[in-house]
Amino acid sequence: MITVNKLIAQGRGLAPVLLKRAATIELDWDTRQKSRFEATDSQGRRLGIFLPRGSVVRGGDVLVAEDGSLLRVIAAPQKVLVVRACAEHGSPFDLLRAAYHLGNRHVALELQPEHLKLEPDHVLAEMLRAMHLIVGEEASAFEPEAGAYAEGGHGHAHAAGHAHEHSHDHDAHAPAAPARGKPIGVAVKPADKPHVHGPGCKH
Q1: Which stretches does UniProt call biased (Basic and acidic residues) (predicted)?
Q2: 6 and 64 share a domain?
Q3: Which of 43, 59, 72, 74 is the most exposed place for a label (fewest CB within 10 A)?
């Protein structure tokens, strides 16, 4: 068994030709959250992965074996729920509401511009359908958000060679605090319109 104890996030700094020649290793999300696990690479080699505790392996990351060989990580397809807004009766804002409620439940969630992904859960699926969202199941790679305080400050996984850091000065753009004694305006949500589903809504 070959020991692996180093991870290079998204293969940063490695020449493309080295990444192209590297063996690959397919791992699902459950495995990629672990810092200790065994696996087999595309060359049939048995690997013992020992990473610092708390490490999370992402698709596109590169593992370095004790013999110096490189292993390019591929996020293995797995069953996920794919949540989309109803094009006929809903709006993209419905996805924002769904992400908020799922976040309150600490659900691992992949955010995309037009859909959300989460691991299969029939209770959550029914909740989302009750919010007039379309919920389907498919097999695809799963890369949930890492959290605002993860390394680099971004939850989304970057493609190889795409690395950036931001220095945000939020205080410079923050609105001035209201004067003491003055009421703060509260937005009132208008009454919801009746939600009528057509035959193509697929709820």
Answers
A1: 162-173
A2: yes
A3: 43
